[in-house]
Structures are given as structure tokens and as C-alpha cells.
Design a protein that fits this description.
about 160 residues, mainly alpha, about 5% strand, elongated, about 50% helix, 2 domains, three-stranded antiparallel beta sheet, hpI Integrase, Chain A, 7 helices
Length: about 160
Amino acid sequence: MDLLKEYLAKQSDRLKPSSMGHRIRFIRSLFRFAFEEGHIIKNPTPKLREPKLEKRIPKFLIEEDVINLKIACDSLRERALLEFLYCTGCRVGEVHRLDIEDINWESCSAIVHSKGSKQREVYFATECKVWLKRYLKSREDSCKALFVTESFPLLKSWQLVERLQ
């Protein structure tokens, strides 16, 4: 145990707390495996604790950044997608699974499928609704996905990714 503590003390001088936490979890896992497989008599790591991590303030866009992003949009699809992401705070992985039928136009809301097979309702502004309607009106396909790729309009974006892999 002393050798392990000495090793970790040397590592803590050069590693960030988050990396040190990864290192400690790895070491605990390795020793747990060795103990369960009978390679060692006693697991020396149960009392090892990860360093406390300071809470980080999330990064965000200032209004000027958002305006520049809106100006940089080349198509109705890009603008509608940007508006939706910005208004709802959804992850890209949630948005690419959205179907048109998931949108409630009267309440300006959508049902998104979150991590862990959970569903949640998100709301968007009237400006977003306008851009979504413009984008949908410009489409010439019958795909039920809200956002389709421009190259393969009958495929949802996640289907295209799977197809290319």
C-alpha cells in the first residue's frame, strides 16, 4: 500500500485532478480484478479516494457569437437547425432523431428522445418556429425526419452515418 501511495503522490504533481481520478479508478479496477482472479491475497485499493473536482462553469455563447453564427448559415436547413439547437438546448444526438410528428406547432414544443431512452419536452421560440416552417416548406421529399441530409433526403442523418461506416 505504501508503494501505491508513493506512486500516486508522484503522479499527483504532474496530473490534473480529473486525470488523477481516472488513474485511481483504473488502479482500483486492476487490483479488484487481480483479487477476484486469485492473483493477490488482499486488495489494497478500497480506501483509495479520488481527488475532489472543482465545479466548472459551463461555456456559453455571447449574443455576438450567436448573431455571427446566424449570418454564417448557408441554407434554410442550417438556419432552422441552428435556431432549434439554440432555442431548445438539445444535444445534436437528440435533434437528429426528431421526426416532424414530434413537433407540436401550437405550443411551440417538441418531444425529444434523451440519453437512456428517456423522453422530454422542449420548447422553442416563435422565431425558431418560423425558420422550421420555412425549411420544411422548401423540402421536396416525403421523409418523416425533421432534419434530413441534403445529399440523401430520404435518409435520416443517423442512417447516413450508419450507412457510411
